[in-house]
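[Backbone geometry]
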Amino acid sequence: MSLDKTYQKVPGTTIFDAEQSAKGYHLNQFCMSLMKAENRERYLADERAYLDEWPLAEEQKQALLDRDLNAAIAEGGNIYFLSKWGATLGLSFQQMAGSMTGMTEADYRDMMLHGGRSIDGNRIADQVIEAHFTADDSPAEHPTITGAVFTSHVPAIGAAWDQHKTEEPYWKQVFDGYEFSKEYEQEHTPDVIFLVYNDHATAFDLSLIPTFVLGTGAYYPAADEGYGPRPVPGIEGDPEFAAHIAHSLIRDDFDLTLVNEMTVDHGLTVPLSLMFGDVEKWPCKVIPFHVNVVQYPIPSGERCFRLGKALRKAIESYDRPLNVQVWGTGGMSHQLQGPRAGLINREWDNRFLDALVDHPDDLATVPHLEYVEEAGSEGIELVMWLIARGAMSDIEGDGTVEVKHRFYHVPASNTAVGHLILENHPTPDTAIAVGQE
């Protein structure tokens, strides 16, 4: 079943959802620019010239030039953003609202003085509701999650790759562990990767600490982490698919921060380099998903595992036949601070890999204290692997997973490197059923 968007049927109403936001992103950002006096002056001096500075659709520009708020909203505008534009033109909220109803400002004001618009005649018609809930709107085609990739995302690995040190004795064993992986990805290149990672005080500092961030934008450049940006491509997002996932996950009570613009650091780019090598452009779209594992409180392994289950439902309820992989990154055991800096726990790491394959439900209950004590303060990144694991078919008992590759090595700079590829084998015709739950 496709996602419930009955709100779209309320007469005379446009709900600003993730799809509308993606459609109107630049239109609404244009409106925000008018919060600066110098920009208001430039806009009023030559509206068309100022609009042409923005990557707006011609329909969006014309809506503003025509003072047509209904058209602007249809093109993705949101009334709170458009109010900045209206204020620039000297319009009150009542003038703007009245213009959308076909009423003069005086008539609209008089209507409000007499109690406002009646709800009678402004509800969804019963026959529309009935038709909505009896229609078979299951997508004829839908995405398939073909596998999960788990890997460490050590910044020094990226530096070694960029500086062509892959054959040096220190690094050769690390990179040899990904030779199979590059060949595998060439043969099984997905359309989209849902990539779970954590930002390392790059896009998010202490002024904003979101727990879960879903990238809903079209493009994300590589970040400068203090040494200059890595010489790798930025990533192409999938705004429509990401908007769908956002709608589904939030409806399943996972609170997300939706981000259209951000840079992506080594947590995301190093795994891509390890799996795809040197490329001028990444061979697929990537939806970035950041998890806060830097400042406590951080999400539990159990919550991450549940999010993975909900992610599968979100992905499989989309209406396009995409090949999707879910990647979990970070870890394994390492500590970067304090007198225990340099801590590595090979035995615990390999038990984690065993449990990730065979007993993920039990692994999800491991408390934060065990991660920190046994795998080091930064080993807590491993909770992110549980999101990718939770999205596999065997978790709900309607499929199996196959281990295609496993690799473990110490060290890569300060970190134990772990890597696993699980191929997903869902039982035929079960994906949509899961999406209906």
